[in-house]
Amino acid sequence: MHYYKCLLTWITIHLVVPFDINFGSCTQYPAHQDNQANVGQAIAIDPNGYIAYCPCMGRWGNQADQFLGSLSFSRGLNRTLILPPWVEYPEWSPGTSVQIPFDKYIRVQPLSQYHRVITMETFMSNLAATVWPPNKRIGFCFYYRENKQCAMKEGNPFGPFWNHFEIQFKSYVEYGNRIGGGNAYYSFNEHVRSAWNQNFPAEKYPVMAFSGPPGDFPVKAHDRLLHKYVKWSKFISGKVKTFIKDSLDKQRFVAIHLRMGSDWKSACQHLKDHEAKNYMESPQCYGDNNVKPIPYKVCYPSENDIFRQTKRIARKYNVTNVFIATDESSVRDRLEQKFKKEQIRIVSLNPPEPHVELAIIGRAEHAIVNCISSFSGFAKRERDAKNKPTTFWSIK
Ligand SMILES: *[C@@H]1O[C@H](CO)[C@@H](O)[C@H](O)[C@H]1NC(C)=O
Ligand SMILES: *[C@@H]1O[C@H](CO)[C@@H](O)[C@H](O)[C@H]1NC(C)=O
């Protein structure tokens, strides 16, 4: 099967690329099923070049947040965005990471309505040998570590990410001070754009390979709107459909996201120790220019608040099912007991699957989520894009 696809790729690339390339190894990187349609089709080369990056900061919530800024950045520079695999950190193997093809979770086609994109697996299998031969593989670092070296592949997930595609960098560039520091990713600004193009023209730098996402965290308000192009894959939406049919009897429901685990509790402690006006995803409810300290309970709501808010919303929408996604099962168990008296059923996904749970939250009549959590942020953006109402814990 692999040999067959490889041969098809070989033929199509030879038809569109007029010069001789060594396809001796013809490496195929495992792609997700939704992506297989690409293999065997001719893929045009973008003369403006490409942008690649490692989603090397945080887990799904952060990666999906910074993806939007990176997408916007690529469009501003008019380079094709190479969709990186998602980085996951398996519990069974601390200190390592695995690369999950982008399109396992998110569809490629809707993104291309906004800008040209290609999955990293497809790029590396079909185009890299032509567009990005080993002697053109230059790594991009904002600043060199300790002013000395890029160290782009040092540590986890940095090393495993590029090694997954057998990418070695021939050399590195430091771009932060050449482009304008904190504004480097505002590629819609003409000065910023021309600084990029003058310093790193596509002929010499066909692929800008960034050590981290070329986008802000948290995502800026204008880029948040790009979430409307982010659609769950068939793999995820199929599971959602099954869950809504089997566990919710196709009834209307409201959803809540409770980030309550012990790691989260210590993260929230920051708000007790400092008068923080911005913390993680907080601009999603306080805006980019918040002036008041964020109350602790917004990050870590009391169970009383959770009960009261959930009950109010369930009554308002006249539903008997509340879907709950949480990292703390004891909270769920206590809520379940309390809500029994109210004739309200607490429903959850067993075993938990974070992406499926998020997608279920996206379908609820109303959702209550955590203002500080980037996982919640995904739900909020998806629901905004569908004009569905969302509120936050402990914020009026
Ligand atoms: C962006 O790149 C595409 C494809 O290379 C090209 O067709 C288009 O004209 C470019 N747009 C601008 C504004 O340069
Ligand atoms: C609430 O839903 C029930 C069925 O679940 C229905 O019988 C009742 O009329 C609804 N009440 C309102 C106010 O919509």
Automatic annotation (TrEMBL):
List the EC numbers from the record.
2.4.1.221
What transmembrane ranges does the database entry give?
none
- Show the InterPro entries listed in the entry: GDP-Fuc_O-FucTrfase, POFUT1
Q: State the superkingdom.
A: Eukaryota
Which pathway is recorded for this entry?
Protein modification; protein glycosylation
Signal peptide, first to last residue:
1-18
* Protein name, per record: GDP-fucose protein O-fucosyltransferase 1
Recorded source organism is: Trichoplax adhaerens
